[in-house]
Specification:
The protein is an alpha/beta fold. The chain is about 35% helix and about 15% strand. It starts with 8 loop residues before the first strand and ends with a helix. It binds pyridoxal-5'-phosphate (PLP). The site of pyridoxal-5'-phosphate (PLP) has 17 residues, from helix 7 and helix 12. Pyridoxal-5'-phosphate binds next to helix 7 and helix 12.
Length: about 425
């Protein structure tokens, strides 16, 4: 592998601008006056793709990583013809992260969660006695399991038993990857609770979700890929959101590119879409409030069960805190849309016919929201539009055969933490 010198960066508390050092895995500012994300501030102010590195590491000068990993892939941006014509758009660019070798997209796990996995796992030091813990409803689990298996990184994946179908792989996973699941009938929040209890032991390291700067800047490579292809910042950006992390990340890279100055000074209007009836952030945004509208666990469960794009059902998204999705939408003069299952299915088929890629329901939700924005005039026909197609190509990826992973342990999240820790530790001994 090529020699790699990590880029220099510090962390900034978005709420008060305090700049401080990363202790290695800092997820928040301990002195923050208010709930806030921390953001990476890179020494390199110019956008400088690394021609010598592969996949997302091409953007390593804006990634808070210490090393580079094997088999790295990344997003691919191309100018749309079929969908562009259908919508009457002159400058539609599709950023696709998934498997479609005909356009050069080779993410074998098929979703843009790969971008966060290659970045987060590369933020870990090469020699560490800690075991990474990731909680996921599906796509994140698959991406981290693959990256950690390929690179011999010890990890515990926490996933609800009913979502285990998301764990398909081309090869059997190495033993550094352990899968623990909450019992049948449990959901994402139970898997989160399992992981949280596990992380009370020093031996385990919580990945951190949206708070992890590596996760966000990994996802933000979608915009970097688009700007390289377009040559300037887009006017509008479309993405389906569950947590909103990918959209926050795009906003952050937009601000860095404005500082660079060579790609224009505009703030790209950010448009985020949710799958109705799971419209927690949509409802909050339309009420124009920073606080999330209330949603009980039970209500969340019922609504999550109804939607096709299951990955879009996060009940605790980083929306309200400083530097979160509310701020991103507000600062960029963006907006939100809600999309029904019928609309998703319509655009999924349409996209396949027009662009020849089978996309996930979540990605189709973004396409549907773009069609709405064209119709309601939010987007003008000659504007530069970036559509973040967050995943797809699963049919072709699976065509070569695949294995299903099975849980190493099924544990109730109600077990006392020492029992959970003890049982999981034994898997690694
Ligand atoms: C996770 C995911 C999303 C939503 O991403 P966020 O930026 O975290 O809201 C959209 N599409 C797919 C396919 C995903 O896996």
């Amino acid at each position: 592998m090529p020699r790699f010198t990590p880029t220099q960066y510090e962390l900034m508390n978005v709420a008060d601008g305090r700049v401080f050092k990363d202790k290695g895995w800092t997820l928040a500012d301990p002195e923050s006056p208010a709930p806030s994300l921390v953001r990476a501030v890179y020494g390199e102010k110019l956008f400088t793709p690394r021609e010598d590195l592969e996949g997302i590491y091409r953007y390593a000068s804006w990634l808070p990583i210490r090393r580079i990993l094997k088999n790295a892939q990344g997003p691919v941006t191309y100018q749309s013809k079929g969908l562009a014509r259908e919508l009457g758009l002159k400058n539609l660019f599709i950023t696709f992260t998934g498997y479609a070798p005909e356009i050069g997209a080779e993410v074998a796990t098929c979703s843009f969660k790969a971008t966060e996995a290659y970045s987060v796992c590369a933020r870990l030091p090469k020699k560490t006695d800690k075991i990474l813990v990731v909680q996921s409803a599906g796509n994140t689990a698959r991406a981290f399991a693959q990256v950690c298996s390929d690179n011999n990184i010890p990890i515990v994946i926490c996933i609800p038993r009913d979502n285990i179908d998301a764990l398909w792989f081309h090869k059997r996973l190495r033993s550094c990857v352990k899968i623990i699941s909450s019992p049948r009938g449990s959901d994402y929040f139970d898997a989160i609770q399992l992981g949280d209890k596990l992380c009370r032991s020093e031996r385990f390291l919580a990945e951190g979700g949206a708070k992890n700067v590596a996760r966000r800047d990994g996802m933000g490579t979608t915009l970097l890929s688009a700007v390289e292809a377009i040559g300037e910042l887009p006017d509008a950006y479309f993405q389906a959101v569950g947590s909103g992390t990918g959209t926050i990340a795009v906003w952050e890279n937009n601000l860095r590119l404005i500082e660079d100055g060579r790609f224009g000074k505009k703030k790209t209007r950010l448009y985020a879409a949710q799958n109705a009836p799971f419209t927690l952030m949509y409802d909050s945004w339309k009420a124009h409030q920073r606080a999330l509208v209330p949603m009980t666990a039970e209500e969340g469960r019922l609504k999550a069960a109804e939607i096709d794009a299951k990955v879009l059902s996060n009940r605790k998204p980083p929306y309200s805190l400083a530097g979160g999705l509310f701020d991103a939408l507000e600062d960029s003069k963006g907006d939100m849309y809600k999309v029904t299952n019928e609309e998703i299915n319509f655009w999924k088929r349409k996209f396949n016919a027009l662009e020849h890629i089978d996309i996930y329901s979540a990605a189709a939700c973004a396409v549907a929201s773009l069609s709405m924005a064209v119709k309601d005039g939010s987007v003008k026909k000659n504007e530069i539009v970036m559509l973040n197609c967050t995943g797809g190509g699963e049919e072709s990826a699976k065509a070569g055969g695949y294995f299903m992973a099975v849980p190493d342990l099924v544990l109730s999240p109600d077990l006392p933490e020492d029992q959970i820790i003890d049982q999981v530790c034994r898997l690694f001994d």
